[in-house]
Each structure stands twice: as C-alpha cells, then as structure tokens.
Design brief:
With 490 residues, this protein is of the alpha/beta class. The protein has helices at 7-29, 34-45, 49-59, 68-83, 143-149, 176-185, 223-234, 286-306, 327-339, 368-382, 400-404, 419-422, 437-456, 466-475, 479-484, and strands at residues 88-109, 114-117, 120-121, 128-137, 157-161, 190-194, 218-221, 240-261, 266-276, 312-319, 345-350, 359-363, 389-391, 410-414. Strands 1, 2, 3, 4, 5, 6, 7, 8, 9, 10, 11, 12, 13 and 14 form a 14-stranded mixed sheet that branches. Helix 8 (286-306) crosses helix 13 (437-456). The two termini are 24 Å apart.
C-alpha cells in the first residue's frame, strides 16, 4: 500500500486509522477477539520454549554459523517448527564468508620479564597475525581519547574497554567494531579489549564494522587483568604486548529457517517476527540468542494451537550468521528485494536477547508509534506487569538493521534481563542457568499478542521513503556509525 506524501493526507490517514484501531483495541480488551484470548491461554499454560532451549544446550551446544553444531541447530529448528504444527516450513540458503576461532597468545613484557595472559580472539580478525608493540591505554576507546593522545597510537598496541568506565553522565558508547575501526584508522597495530565483568570472564564478538576481515589482531582480556595492567601503566611502567593468533576464514553454506502461517483476506501482507539462531562458540548461547529463538518457535506453536487464523500472513524467521555480521538477515533482505517481495513485508519484530518484555521500541514513519502504543493496551489489560513503555529511537547491530536499512519499519521488545545476563553474553558463562523460564513464557504472551493484533489490524502504516529513512537515521544519531560501516547512502 502506498500512502500520500502530503501532510494533510498523512494527518487524515492517522486520524482515521487511530479511530479504527481504537475500536479494534477496545474489542480486544473486552474479550471480543477470541483468537487473542485463546492464544494467551495456550502461551501461558502449554509453554514449550524453555524445554526446547534447555534440550538444545546439551544436545547441540553452541550454534556457530559454518560449524557442524550450527548445521544441526538449523535442522532441529526446522523439525521443531513442524512439531509445533506449522505446515509451511522452509530453509532459506545463503553463502557467506565466515570466521572461526583458532589459537591466540597474548604476552606482556616490561623488559625484565614476560607474562602470558588469558585471552580470546575477536571475530573477523586475521587468519594469521603476529605483532609486538608498545602498549598505550585508550580508556573507553572513544574519539575524545584519540584527540588527547594525538600521534601516540600509530604503530602501537592499544588497550580499551568494551563498555564505558568512569565516563561522564550521558556519554554514548560505541560498538566494539566501531572502536576497532577508530583504532585502525589511527594506525594501531593491535587491539586489546578489556571486558568489564568481574570473575575472569572473557568476551568475544565481531571486531569488524562491515563484515570484512580487519587488518590487525584484536583480543579480549579479563577485567582483573586489565585493572592490573593499568595499575602498572599508571605507575610509570613501559609495557610491550605481543599478540599472535591464527583463525579460519572461508566460505560457508548456511540456512535461515522460515515458518509461515498464511493469512486470510490480507494474506499478501506479511508480518515478520525474527531473531538469530546462531551463537558464539564459547558457550551454548542460551541468552544470546536461544532465549529469543526458541521463544519464536513456541510463539508459532501457540498461534497454531489457538486455532486463530490471522488476516495477514505471519512469518517466523530464525536467522543464521547474525553474530558474524548479520549474514543471514542481509541475505534474506537482498533476496526479498530481488523478487519484489519486500514490499509485502509490513514490519519486522526482532527478538534478540528478549525476555519478559515491558514495552516496545518502534522505528517507523508516521503512524507506527501511535499504532503500537494503542495495541499495547490489550496486553496490559491481560497482564498489568506489562508496563506499556514505548521508545522511538533507532539502533543498530542486530538483524532488524537489515530490514530497517531497506525501509521496513522495525519493532524491538524492551526488556531488562539483569546484569548477570548482560555480563555473560558472548562469553563462556552464557548457558541455560541464566534463563528464567517465565521470561520465555512472557516473550510468547506479550510479543505474540502484539503480533496477532498487527496481523488483524484494519490498516498498517507504510514503509519509510528513502528520504524519510535518511532523515530518521540522522536524527537518531546514526549517520557517523553508518558512515564508518560504509552503509550511509544519503
């Protein structure tokens, strides 16, 4: 559907659709939407998501794209969708360059002795690297630190935090890949990230802002080691770091897993709910993102079991390759563009580390924020623990980005999993003991309720125009980040 560009037409559409949605939502709250009522009961009383996730952590382990475990996860997801009663299940193949961990050695010397530190390599680092250089502390690794150090970075190994430490209130952090890009731009020959979680936890993740292999080695050390090294630097010690690593980079075949529940009178319109199935290889990826992925499968089960047939087609997608650079979602969007089917996708809900949502983040053109705000009322009426928070601020670095940059409105559930979870993502402690089964039940209940209402709404707003998308991304402060990634086209 194409909507007029004039302000008057937009206002008229918004007013009319708001009235229609108000009537629609009033009916849901007062029990006049039997599909939603049955879905809620099914999601709450017969939940299977946690059971499937717990089984996968022992039967599969990690789910790294390109690995045997990743391939098994794809096959299991396909089987679970079918077990859930979904008739239309398929696999979307794609080919990509993928990275796999090899060996890493990090040594620290002060001229009098040498110390070897525990470290893990970050993804998209070179297949072979061996560098040695003086160590310079960049603190949080933001632009202002480079301005202070001027030419002291070139030819040296840099030390920087993954998160923000002792930063002024309101300081915005950068993604680790953006920090790596800045370091490389300023001539660093190696990068040592300090994790900011106590307990010797090592963290991995991609160091590449555009998916390509970066030219320098990058590794992560524990918070305790970083604190000790900084103590020596502050005491005046001159430290040198040797960083050697080998990794494997090559072409892999992978598959996104797709399950579809066809709509009725508006079946040509599609509402997508997706999340990545893959995980890093240091643990089982229970919270990142088994939590979201297996909730999506259970959501499809609950829709089928409720017996409700939505007006619009529901498409459930489990993406592979998110951790290595949004590989699966970018391939999916490229294929949808090529076939012209992307115009049918009305919006995309992304479930990445989603647990017990209390609201939704919405990024879309005029009408999408008020629409979702209206549709949260029936969810709150169903369970007052759902707070109906609404946030309209774009962000990057998950599978919704692939859809957003193509102009598709995106929705992200808002949640707070707690520091014990966020301290373990991408690390060796990301296992099922971190997952509260209730979080997965509420994923299905609350996100599923929004999904069904979107599928049955009288009308949905449109996509971003190219001009409107550029303006929104600029207004939300993403221009520089996208320029760094080579994805700014406005």
């Amino acid at each position: 559907m194409v909507f007029p560009n004039s302000g008057q037409s937009r206002c008229l559409w918004t007013a009319c659709s708001a009235l229609a949605l108000s009537i629609f939502s009033h009916g849901v709250v007062h029990g006049q939407h039997p599909g939603l009522t049955r879905f809620e009961a099914e999601a709450r009383e017969n939940a299977r998501g946690y059971e499937w996730l717990a089984w996968s952590t022992t039967a599969i382990g990690h789910r790294l794209t390109g690995s045997p475990q990743g391939a098994r996860a794809q096959a299991v997801a396909d089987s679970l969708f079918r077990l859930a009663g979904v008739d239309r299940v398929s696999q979307h193949p794609f080919t990509a360059q993928a990275w796999a961990r090899g060996t890493v050695m990090l040594r620290l010397t002060d001229g009098a002795g040498t110390e070897h530190l525990a470290a893990v390599a970050l993804a998209q680092t070179p297949d072979s690297a061996d560098v040695e250089g003086d160590l310079v502390d960049l603190g949080n690794g933001l632009a202002e630190q480079y301005a202070q150090l001027k030419d002291r970075v070139a030819g040296r190994v840099v030390l920087m935090n993954i998160g923000l430490v002792d930063a002024p209130k309101g300081t915005g952090n950068l993604h680790r890949s953006e920090k790596a890009a800045l370091a490389i731009r300023h001539g660093a020959i190696g990068i040592v990230f300090v994790n900011n979680v106590d307990g010797g936890v090592l963290l991995t993740g991609t160091a590449s802002i555009d998916g390509a292999t970066i030219p320098v080695p990058a590794a992560c050390i524990a918070s305790e080691d970083g604190l000790r090294i900084r103590g020596r630097l502050n005491a005046g010690a001159s430290l040198r770091v040797g960083l050697r690593m080998t990794n494997r980079i090559g072409t892999v075949q992978a598959r996104n897993v797709v399950a579809e529940i066809p709509g009725s009178d508006r079946a040509h319109e599609v509402v997508v709910v997706g999340g990545h199935l893959d995980s890093w290889d240091l643990a089982t990826g229970a919270t990142d993102n088994g939590l979201g992925a297996f909730s999506i499968v259970d959501m499809a089960r609950a829709v089928v079991a409720s017996g409700h047939r939505p007006r619009r087609t529901l498409r459930f997608i489990l993406f592979m390759g998110e951790e290595q650079g949004l590989l699966g979602s970018e391939a999916m969007v490229a294929d949808l563009k090529a076939t012209g089917e992307l115009e049918r996708v009305r919006c995309m809900i992304n479930m990445d580390m989603t647990g017990d949502p209390f609201g939704f983040g919405v990024v879309g053109p005029a009408g999408w924020g008020p629409l979702v705000d209206t549709l949260m009322a029936p969810i709150h009426a169903m369970d007052t623990a759902f707070r109906m928070d609404l946030k309209e601020q774009a962000w990057l670095h998950s599978d919704h980005q692939s859809f957003l940059l193509a102009g598709v409105p995106v929705i992200n559930p808002l949640c707070d999993l707690g520091g014990h979870v966020y301290g373990c993502y991408h690390s060796s402690c990301d296992d099922v003991h971190l997952v509260d089964p209730r979080d997965m039940v509420n994923n299905v209940r609350f996100v599923g309720a929004l999904l069904l209402q979107l599928a049955d709404a009288p009308a949905l707003p449109g996509h971003f125009t190219e001009e409107g998308l550029g303006a929104r991304l600029r207004a939300d402060g993403l221009e520089e980040k996208l320029r760094m990634a080579g994805q700014w086209r406005w």
